[in-house]
C-alpha cells in the first residue's frame, strides 16, 4: 500500500473511534439500563410510557403487560415495551416543582 493512503485514513479511523466512545457506547449503556429497569418493574413503581402517560404499577403480568393506574380507579393495560422510564416507589420530587 502507498504510505499516503494509510496516512490519509488515520483521521477517518480516529473520527470513527471518537464517535464510538462519545455517541454509540453511552447510548448502548442507557438502553441496557432501561431494559433492565423495565424487566425488573414491580408493583408500586411509577412508570412513564412512550406516550407520556405517568402511572403507578398495580400488577405485572407475565405476558409482557403491566396494569397501570393513571388516576383514581382508572387502570390501563400497557405493554412493557412502551415503558420509557421507571421511577422507584420513593423517587424524589423534582426541585423545580417546589418553586
Structural class: alpha+beta
Share of helix among residues? 25-40%
Number of helices: 1
The share of residues in extended strands comes to: 25-35%
Radius of gyration: 21 Å
Major sheet attributes? 5 strands, antiparallel
Could you characterize the architecture of this molecule?
The chain has one domain (3-89): Roll (SH3 type barrels), CATH 2.30.30. 37% of the residues lie in helices and 29% in strands. The chain is rod-shaped, with a radius of gyration of 21 Å. It has one helix at residues 3-39, and strands spanning 46-49, 54-60, 65-71, 74-79, 83-87. A five-stranded antiparallel sheet has the order 4-3-2-1-5.
What secondary-structure arrangement, pairings included, does this model have?
Elements lengths: L2 H37 L6 E4 L4 E7 L4 E7 L2 E6 L3 E5 L12
Antiparallel strand pairs: 1-2, 1-5, 2-3, 3-4
Give short descriptive properties of this protein.
1 helix; 99 residues; SH3 type barrels; alpha+beta; rod-shaped
At a glance:
This protein has a single domain, classed as SH3 type barrels (Roll). Helices cover 37% and strands 29% of the residues. The protein has one helix at residues 3-39; strands at residues 46-49, 54-60, 65-71, 74-79, 83-87.
Amino acid at each position: 500500500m502507498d504510505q499516503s493512503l494509510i496516512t490519509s485514513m488515520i483521521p477517518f479511523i480516529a473520527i470513527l473511534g471518537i464517535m464510538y466512545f462519545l455517541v454509540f457506547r453511552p447510548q448502548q449503556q442507557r438502553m441496557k439500563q432501561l431494559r433492565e429497569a423495565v424487566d425488573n418493574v414491580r408493583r408500586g413503581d411509577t412508570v412513564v410510557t412512550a406516550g407520556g402517560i405517568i402511572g403507578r404499577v398495580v400488577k405485572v403480568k407475565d405476558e409482557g403487560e403491566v396494569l397501570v393506574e393513571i388516576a383514581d380507579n382508572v387502570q390501563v393495560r400497557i405493554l412493557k415495551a412502551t415503558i420509557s422510564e421507571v421511577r422507584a416507589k420513593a423517587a424524589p420530587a423534582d426541585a423545580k416543582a417546589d418553586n
